[in-house]
Amino acid sequence: MGSNLFAELRVWVLQDVETLLPGLTQMHASIELTPTRDAVHGDMATNAALVAAKPAGRNPREIAARLAELLAKREGIAKAEPAGPGFVNITLTPEFLLRQLPVILDAGIAYGNGAAKGQKINVEYVSANPTGPLHVGHCRGAVVGDALANLLQKAGYDVTKEYYVNDAGAQVVALARSVYVRYLQALGRNLHAEAYAAQVPGGVQYGGEYLVPVGQSLAELYGEMFATAPEEQWLDTIREFAVAKMLELIREDLAALHVTHDVFTSERELVAAGGVERALQILQDRGLIYEGTLEPPKGKTPEDWEPREQTLFRATQFGDDVDRPVKKSDGSNTYFANDIACHADKMARGFNAMIDVLGADHGGYTKRMQAAVKALAGNGDARLDVVLCQIVRVMKNGEPVRMSKRAGTFVELRDLIDEVGADAVRFIMLMRKSDAQMEFDLNAAVAQTRDNPVFYVQYAHARCRSVLRAAGEPSGLAAADLSALTAPEELTLIRKLIAWPRLVEAAALAREPHRVAFFLYELAGDFHALWNAGRDDAALRFIQAEKPIETAARLALVSATSVIIRSGLGVLGVKPVEEMR
RNA sequence: GCGCCCUUAGCUCAGUUGGAUAGAGCACGAGACUUCUAAUCUUGAGGCCGGUGGUUCGAAUCCACCAGGGCGCACCA
After folding, report:
1. Is A573 within 8 Å of A517 (Cβ atoms)?
2. Fewest C-beta atoms under 10 Å: which of A192, A337, A420, A580?
3. Which nucleotide has the least CA–C1' distance to A506?
4. How many Å does it take to go from CA A446 to C1' B8?
5. ∠ at Cα A513 (A509, A516), nearest 5°?
6. Whole-angstrom Cα distance, residue A212 to residue A228?
7. A101 vs A112: CA distance, rounded Å
8. What is the largest CA-CA distance in chain A?
């Protein structure tokens, strides 16, 4: 079902290398069979001779020449020849290439799915504090995390998409206080609200309009009950209520972006269930917790610095720069301690592979969390990958769009979605490596031209569908006689299609969903090129009235193309369109 | 001061984990097309891959140092 042609033919290479140089099996791992960058080099190339040269003590070109002879005898290989410093370039027979089309058609959307790896991976993303609607800054992580999880799933991992709800810290207390002000206002007690706000330590933090309805709901539910009551009587109730409401808002935002999660894990519940103590105990048992005092940070000593004895975790034993506090000087747990618990909990749930998708401002957090995971794993093989998403600058008419709350422009994610649509937001966010800063051009995102990769890919799919509709949605294309497919543009397109499984595997391994977006863009380009060829030469058009055999062959190709585009868009979470309007 | 990320064509960015002559799109130059599958197409030019050393058959990719940009830097979340 996966049918990665490159993986299959690599076996041939390994067999022939073994025939040629028996016993040198330890180098097999570094032998690869890759698509050629340039079509004049054929369909595939292997570095086998280069890799083998040193252990075999022979000239790479000589090995390449002999390997080429062996490979050329294989059925399906039209030509194999040594090239450059010791590559072997392989050209497949057209028949062999064409045989892949029915494989795609039979597998459908599942083409490119990796074999089940039996490995559980936890992908945590968004995890925004439940204190308000999502803003643009959350967007990239949400999209990258969602697409990465989809990608890993397609590659054959058992993926769980997780949202870690930070509902235990000071920020949700601040939320409760902010909501309380709205509650008083809803009761018409504006003076009372002002008086309360004035004595909140640090001031009222969340002044957004989105809390107004929350205050109103509370007023309806509880009436005057909390109006004059001291904080301790309402804090828990209102905090819980507010967090639930904020999560509703966030879920709506995520839904608008077509981002989904399998589980929402509550920090509060984890803490209440003793998760932190359990996690720290594991570290304690390994002698990785001690009481000590940290040095002030070099070069930038805070004004109010004073040495304090704290409970510390020996992060330096696992590659971090300094040991990290797990308890504050007053004995309460640090946020880091809760995060250790969060990851320990995931490990307890059977995930030995975890991925955190975080914003760039959490970059300094990577080392300590990876250190903690290593420490928790002990002799186990748990691994945490952190995917950092750099800042996005939103551009309009060549100018950066201000994100200030006062200006009221594009603070909230919803505004961005309303402006360009969820599909465009997702695709464009995925057109960049996540660890590089990017510009999001609003003009390009809605343009109906090649500048806009979403449009370009969608247009290719719509063209495929349009052709198939015009042909009356033929069935049985997988059994079509394909020998009529001989045009260079057609073969180029097929080569692109069969590269899909390999791309899925590589992109998943690298945790780089953006590669899928680029692949689709290139695939769309190849398809449009074929379409355009038909414009100059009517004989290359897909539907040939008097030639049912040619037509069926071409429709098979078109159908396979649409399948792969759908498959790729599915990974990105973008809906394929049937027609352009 | 320390750590992490980034630096590739005029602009926005890829570069398949170290491979062959570093690629796209936009913008720019030249040509085609008069709506036929046109929400255009073909084609050209454009590069010291930030710099300097190193590792090896081979480096944009790995290592060291330097320069520039971003993010973070006791107990906050």
Report:
1. no
2. A580
3. B16
4. 28
5. 105
6. 19
7. 13
8. 91
- Closest to A337 in 3D by CA, of A349, A345, A326, A324: A326
Taken in order of first residue, the domains within chain A and their CATH numbers are 5-92 (3.30.1360.70), 449-572 (1.10.730.10)
- Flag residues of chain A having pLDDT under 70: 1-2, 299-301, 402-411
Q: Please state, rounded to an integer, the average pLDDT across all residues of chain A.
A: 91
Which chain B positions come under 7 Å from a protein C-beta?
1-7, 12-17, 19-21, 23-26, 36-42, 57-58, 70-77
Closest nucleotide to the alpha carbon of A437, via C1': B6
Nearest nucleotide over every DNA/RNA strand to the A366 CA, judged by C1': B4
Distance, Å, A94 CA → B20 C1': 24
Q: Three-class SS string for A257-280?
A: CCCCCCEEEEHHHHHHCCHHHHHH
Looking at residue A1, what is its pLDDT? 44
Q: In chain A, which residues from 100 to 139 place their CB closer than 7 Å to nucleic acid strand B?
A: 129
Q: What is the pLDDT of residues A467-515, one digit of tens each?
A: 999 999 998 999 999 999 988 889 889 999 999 999 999 999 999 999 9
For residue A403, the model assigns a pLDDT of 61
pTM of the predicted protein model: 0.94
**3 state SS of A355:** strand
